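User: Please predict the structure of the protein below. I'd like the answer in structure-token form so I can feed it into my own downstream comparison script.

Assistant: Understood. Taking the following sequence of 334 residues as input:
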Amino acid sequence: MIRTAVLGCGRIGRMHAANIAAHPRARLAMLHDLDAAAAKAVAGELGVPTGSAEDAFGADIDAVLVATATETHADFIERAVAAGKPVLCEKPIDLNPRRVARCAEAIAGTTVPVQIGFNRRFDPGHRAARDALRAGEIGALQQIVVTSRDPAMPPRAYYAAAGGLMRDMTIHDFDLARFMLGAEPVEIFAMAGRQTDPELMAELDDHDSAMILMRTADGVQCHINNARCAVYGYDQRVELLGDAGMLVSDNRKPHELRSYTAARSEAAAPYEFFFGERYGEAFRAQLDAFFDSIETGAPVQASFEDGQRALILAEAAYRSLREGQMLRVEDAAP
């Protein structure tokens, strides 16, 4: 059993802790949060002890999952690697690419598994689409469309720590696009809007919607579209177009019943409400892959470099947004 510590007991930390507690190859060994009451509440639900951050890197712990505030991620990754503890860290590694670069230098050459929490790579539908693409089912890839829309605006306090739409939300889509493309985008163009709550977004200098266009060196086109508020639910789709066909990884619903009445046709259940429900299987598969890396030495499937490259694309998108033009990624990145 892989004795695993979870740092951070917010919404996503609670979910990770519950998944680890239920995992057949792991034991949830301890929880930590700066908010001691939050840590004790989750620990009480799951029947595990709480401890300090230092305890997570002690001899009684085999692996660490980091779900704390973003500004602590790079530091905890460095501490985990220094202690020889495999680490699964939520995205982003940091909001500052220079801090990420320093972290990369600090852990360079390590054999300790470092996995970043890009869970969408592990979604069964998304992965099946990528596997079918690699198997040649649609011929040569020409276009990718990634749709990612939240069901509702997050609370105001969330924005203070999120770091902006591109670094917080779109970063998942940058990673998913790279995962599907199998190549690095070399050009990028971004536009963003303040459509759902213009006053709040202007006050916080943030955006609640965006569209990003990217292109690889061999001409494959990628379109990412985001919205913070889609009133019909959590909208998560990927479309791959090739010269011999198309692949679609679609939204998920609790069930597939459709009803037909005098008032409406093909009425169906709403989409799964948010990321915990929609990507529940993906989060569990992400843990499986992490524990596989620990037990077998297999490379992690969402690496530190993947986290760094996704952030570089986010920064390049912001520069394109400021300058209002398509840019070469290598020129736009800090």
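That's the full token string. Residues 2-112 form a domain with the Rossmann fold fold (CATH 3.40.50.720).
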